[in-house]
Amino acid sequence: MKVSELLNLVDSLVPLEYAFEEDFVGITIGSEESEVKGIVIGHELDRSLLKFCIDKNINTVISYHPPSFKKIIEDDNTETMLPEIITKEFMDNSVNVITLHTAQDVCEGGNADTLVEIFNLKNTKNFAHTFGNFGAGRIGEINGLSNYGFKKLVENKLNTSSIRTNEYFDKLNEIKKIAILPGSGTQFIDEILEEVDVFVTGDISHRYLLKADDASMGLLQVGHITTEIPGMKKFVENLNKALNQELEYLYKDFYE
């Protein structure tokens, strides 16, 4: 099988056109004409994943996060994208990389939909739109919980103890309506400020904690990959069925 054939299969499960504009998805390292010699799914490109590829003689990775590049602005203001060290090491070892990123967040049955299932959200709608009605975030209703009860629910459902909240969260007596967005979603906070009791996402900066306080909305921060892992596990299951293989999915559980 060529990388192009694997790409077509991946695209049938996770339509890449639904990713955010200018997101780096599809073939991000390598060539569609390469022959696939072993496949592994990795959440991001790191040295432990590269070592796994080398040790197992695998030349094709399906990654959630894209490879990292550094933007260089020349004297004439032209931009050049140079691979970061780990990206170059994958290139030097002739590893092909197909990246899913936000296409996996927004697609049917993807990361956001999986969170809906995990939290049993009712009367849901999408936000943080990419293409048509596809969006990276979900708003929905839950059975009423205290702030403490909701924190415990998040810990249990997402297998994490890495939780940070804003000050207003501790003032909430009952939580009935939440917004949740896999990965980092605070750039979409204005869309849901007046709609929900609590917004759950990752990588919340101090200014957004204060903004939510001012708007009387709770913020709950989990680890960046914590909200992405459940949906990626479902993707691996679907790809395994399509390929009739048992592919491994590697991620650093330290960051859950």
Describe this structure in words.
The chain has helices spanning 3-13, 47-56, 85-92, 102-106, 111-119, 147-158, 206-214, 229-243; strands at residues 26-29, 39-42, 60-63, 69-73, 79-83, 96-99, 122-131, 134-145, 164-165, 175-184, 198-202, 218-222, 249-250. By secondary structure, it is an alpha/beta fold. It is built from eight helices and 13 strands. Helix 5 (111-119) crosses helix 8 (229-243). The model has no long low-confidence stretch (mean pLDDT 96). Strands 7-8-10-11-12-9 form a six-stranded mixed sheet. It has two domains: 3-103, Udp-n-acetylmuramoylalanyl-d-glutamate--2,6- Diaminopimelate Ligase, Chain: A, domain 1; 111-222, NIF3 (NGG1p interacting factor 3)-like (Udp-n-acetylmuramoylalanyl-d-glutamate--2,6- Diaminopimelate Ligase, Chain: A, domain 1, 3-Layer(aba) Sandwich), CATH 3.40.1390.30. Helix content is 31%, strand content 28%.
Relevant terms:
28% strand, Udp-n-acetylmuramoylalanyl-d-glutamate--2,6- Diaminopimelate Ligase, Chain: A, domain 1, alpha/beta, five-stranded mixed β-sheet, 13 strands, 2 domains, 256 residues, six-stranded mixed β-sheet
How does the SSE layout of this entry go?
Elements: H1 3-13, E1 26-29, E2 39-42, H2 47-56, E3 60-63, E4 69-73, E5 79-83, H3 85-92, E6 96-99, H4 102-106, H5 111-119, E7 122-131, E8 134-145, H6 147-158, E9 164-165, E10 175-184, E11 198-202, H7 206-214, E12 218-222, H8 229-243, E13 249-250
Parallel strand pairs: 2-3, 2-13, 3-6, 10-11, 11-12
Antiparallel strand pairs: 1-6, 4-5, 7-8, 8-10, 9-12
Helix pairs in contact: 5-8
